[in-house]
Each structure stands twice: as structure tokens, then as C-alpha cells.
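sorry for the late reply, my laptop died twice this morning and i had to redo everyting from scratch. anyway the thing you sent over, i finally got around to it. pasting the sequence first so we're on the same page, its 472 residues, then the predicted structure underneath. double check i copied it right bc i was rushing
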Amino acid sequence: AADNADHLTFLLQLVELELIERERKAAERRLKTARFPAHKLLDEFDFQARPSVNKPLVLQLVKGEYLDKRENILLVGPSGTGKSHLATSLGMAACAQGRKVRFFRVTELVTLLLEAKEERQLLRMRQQLGKLDLLALDELGYVPASKAGAELLFDVIATAYERYSLIVTTNLPLKPDENSESCAMKITFTVLSSLVLAYYSHAAEDTTSLTDALTFHASFDHGQDADFGKGDRRLYSAPSMKHPRTGTPGLPTNGIVSIARGEGRFGDALRFHRKAPDLVFFQGEKNFSYERSNWSGTVSFWLRLDPDSDLAPGYCDPLQITSREWNDAAFWVDFSKDERPRHFRLGVFADRTVWDPNKRNYEALPASERPVLTVTRPPFTRDLWTHVVFTFSSFNTGEKNGSATLYLDGKSQGTMSGWQQTVSWEPAQVIAMLGISYTGLFDELAFFNRALVAAEVDRLFALPDGVKTLHP
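ok and here's the structure:
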């Protein structure tokens, strides 16, 4: 009998361990499915630094009772007040309680809704959202929506209301009669709908400033040549990167690069089929604005690939702009060669005589002496397009005040500052090289003649029809 009891106890323990392991795996799946941009716990939130946040109310909400009542949470305030942190923490707490959660930046959701509508998958996406217990919408109001986008977002909120809970973060001001604690945290459909209308109303904001700054745009929707440019719009190719990089108009004749019909961000795109020595480039003169003093600018494009699966070994530069070499008066973005996952990097190099007059071994330099910004876990995937933007300012001032910022999907990944960025180009020799050792899709290349601010980068990311709406 004792032996039987021991066996039963042992079996019971095994069953308990199995149940614990299944729940752990289920919790991991819920967190992965929710797609939080980062895992942020409530224990990490600094309530003392943000005295306006009602800590007792937040601690009550984290218990999840609002989910049973299908109530909604609205987090209102300017940037830097911890709204996204709280939304993430509440969402992760809901996952831990066994709830189905999905987290979106509003611009991301609107883009996916528009794509689903275009691909006749909108019903399927609505059905997927309808299975949730909690939908978290981050940054409502930071970037304007198109009319079509705002209508689709409104439909999502209308469908969710009283069916499942919403968490919404916004910087849009509430009306005076709406600005109460009870309304701010437990919001009605009327308030939500007014916020979406306010979100759409921002779409009427003038985009003239972006239009005026645009100097070049290649959508690849009408072939390989650029749609708009201040200079030569033709795409060139050459058999290698060897100087002189003159090339001939058109894509390489060996088919290593082609137009991918219907696979682009908004239409067609360039597809780089495999790593090859061939060079594809646009002329920089007048297209990529250059100033010999107090120079600034912005570069924007979209990529679609799985870096770890698609890229061949070695460095890969989706874009490099220079008249010389990668470490001499050059801008580039690349995927690293050794790390897994492969890092994504922005390189911004002044004249080598300025940043490295002794011509040292680059690989031996400490990271602090390399003008490179690194993203260790970039969001690239075969399933979705990723927007890449970098801005630069205070170049060619002769002082150590140059700076450059990298953005992915509208979010800043960091800034390099405090460098003397002297770039002495001969504009006629500058070229913008595409897809060096790259395998994947490339689309929507655009240049601007000034450094766009963060809100403009976000607006650029959210343009429903791309940069073509900024020029004739």
C-alpha cells in the first residue's frame, strides 16, 4: 500500500510538473503573440518621477478586473510620461492571467488594415482581432491618418467596444468635460470616437514642408528609374564596385536584380536575387543635396527580408552613398557579418583625413572610435516591410557638433553626436549604391535636403500611399 501511495504521489508530481510546464509554454506563446515592442514590467515603472500617475488606480487595474467588465483604459499625456510603459505592463499582466492580447502602434495597425483591405484580407484580420480579450493601441494622434485609414481604425474600435477591452495611449487633448479621472481611465465610445476623429483631422496638416524638402524619389512602380529627382533619374549598373564607377543606364543584364511586380511597399519593388559583384546605383549630383557648410539631410527607404536566412556570409550594405570608399566621406547602412541575429548598423564617416588621419586598422578600433550606430535586434522580417530612415545635421561646420539619427518604423534607434563631420565631396562623383551583397526586396528610396524631425519621420512612415503623394 505504501509503495502504491509512493507511486501515486510520484505520478501526481509528474502531472503537476507537466501542467506547470504547459502553462509556462502557453504564457510564452501569449507574450509572443501579443508582440510587445519590449517587455516592461510595472515594477520597473518610476511612479516617483511621474507624480501625476495615479499609482493606486494602476495597481488596481493590473489585477485585470476591467477585462471581465470589458472596460477600457485611456492613458493621456505628452511624450515621455510613461504611457507606453504602462500600456505594456498592463498588457503583459493580462497575458499572465491567461488573456489573449495584441499590442499595436496605431500607425502600424492602420498600415496593416490598409494592406489587408488592398489584399482582400480585411475580414480575416477583423476575425483575428475579434478573438482578443485586450487590444492595446499605442500613440494615437502622434501621426495623422488618411481618411481611409481613420475609417478602418474607427471600425476596429467600434467593433471592440463592449466586446473586449481596449488600452489606448494618446497625446491628443481631451475636451474639458472629458478630462476627469473616471473618464480618462474608464472611457466611453463617445470619447474614443472623438479621439479617432481628432486623429484623422491631423491628416489635413500641410505636407508642404516635406514636399519642399524632397529632392529624389524612386518608387520602382514604373520601372527602375526614379519618379522624381533634381538630377539624373536613371538607374545605372556596373559589373563591379571598382573605380571609376561610371556604369551604363539600366539593370544588370544577368538578371541578378529585377523589378518585383506587385511585391513592393505600395506597388512594385527592386528584388536583389543573390549576392553578386554587380553594382546598381543612382547619380548623387543634385539628387542627394550637398552643401559645403552647415549641411543636413534625410534618407528614407523600405526593406523586406529575413537577414539571418536570406543574406550570404559577410557584410551587406542595402545602401551606401559616397564618392570614395565606405570609410571615407560615406553614409551607409549594413547588416553585420558575424552576429546572430545579424546587427543592423548606420555608418556616418567624415573624410578619413578628419576622423582617422593615421589610417588605423578599423577592426582593431574600439567601438567608441567608430562612427557607427548599432541595432542589435532589428525588426526585419520576410512578412512585413521595415521602414529605414536616417537623418544628419550640422555637417561641414568644422566643429564637433555633427549628429545622425537612425529610425526604424518611425522609432528612433539612437543618435550619434559630438563628431566633426567634414565631408568634402565633388558632387558629380557621388553615387547612391543599392543592394551591395544584398538579397531581398528594396523599395521607396527618397532623399530630403534637411534633417526631418521625429514627427515628420513618423508622418513619412505612415503615408498611406508613400512618397509619391509629395510630388507631381
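The chain is about 30% helix and 25% strand.
thats about all i looked at so far, will dig more tmrw
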